[in-house]
Amino acid sequence: MVTPGGEVAFITRMLAESAVLKQRVQWYTSMVGKLSSLFVLIAKLKEQGVSNWAVKEFAQGAKTRRWGVAWSWGGLRPAMSVARGIPSLPKHLLPFPSLYSFHVPNASRDAAGQRVHATLEPLEPFRWQWRPALHVGVGFARQNVWSRASRRKQQRAADAEEMDEGDDEDEEAALGIKVTVEETERGNVKVKVRWLRGDDAVLYESFCGMLNRKVLEA
Which is deepest, 17, 74, 173, 182, by most CB within 10 Å? Predict the structure, then answer.
């Protein structure tokens, strides 16, 4: 296909149309034949305020390569293997990592899982479901509910009877996470925090840092 301005101009028009359609389409995708085009397009995505994108490299034979780019105006976060499918790209061109992990020394898998659950279960309002048999839990929050400042703010809201229980639906969550406790081949215990939903990387980082600190302190 030949189009005026080449593939960059064509996908730039797609980006402009997606800014109008927004979440009427969950993901917008395209393929480019030049790596230089990918650099330009990611810069344009960031200029438009897109914080959720994915890149992928496709090898066709020994020499031919193509590159895929996808973006979304929604908050559903793809897995690392999908979103960051070109590890050789400069870090500033890759989307924010959707997986965070840390080791828990001198603890069994069950004990580490109990620490995770004991840390997250009391948070309010925080929708948390823990499956101890699988060592997996999923949680959703509409805001930061783990910092000291947030707890003070919630208390003031509660005193003023401004809190609305039951409006913490997954679709409206500012942060969705999946926590998995695994045992590595060397017998160590690792906690993985997978970013499922949200646009705020700072909020996700804050949650991961809090969980890491609390679990290791327990």
Answer: 173
Rounded to whole angstroms, the Cα distance separating 18 from 11 reads 10
pTM equals: 0.84
The sign of the dihedral angle between the CA atoms of 108, 110, 115, 120 is positive
CA angle centred on 196, ends 46 and 108, rounded to 5°: 130
Measure Cα distances from 174 to 76, 156, 160 in Å.
Answer: 11, 21, 23
The DSSP secondary-structure symbol of 48 reads: T
Angstrom distance (rounded) from CA 175 to CA 173: 5
Alpha helices in the chain (DSSP H): 6-21, 35-47, 80-83, 109-120, 148-159, 201-217
> Using an 8 Å Cβ cutoff, are 180 and 132 in contact?
no
Task: Dump pLDDT digits (tens) for 89-140.
Answer: 888 889 999 999 999 999 999 999 999 999 999 998 899 999 999 999 999 9
Please choose, from the candidates 68, 44, 41, the residue with its C-alpha nearest in 3D space to the C-alpha of residue 56.
68
Distance, CA of 61 to CA of 197 (rounded, Å): 36
Q: How many CA atoms lie within 13 A of 42 on its CB side?
A: 25
Q: φ, ψ for residue 70 (rounded to 5)?
A: -140, 150
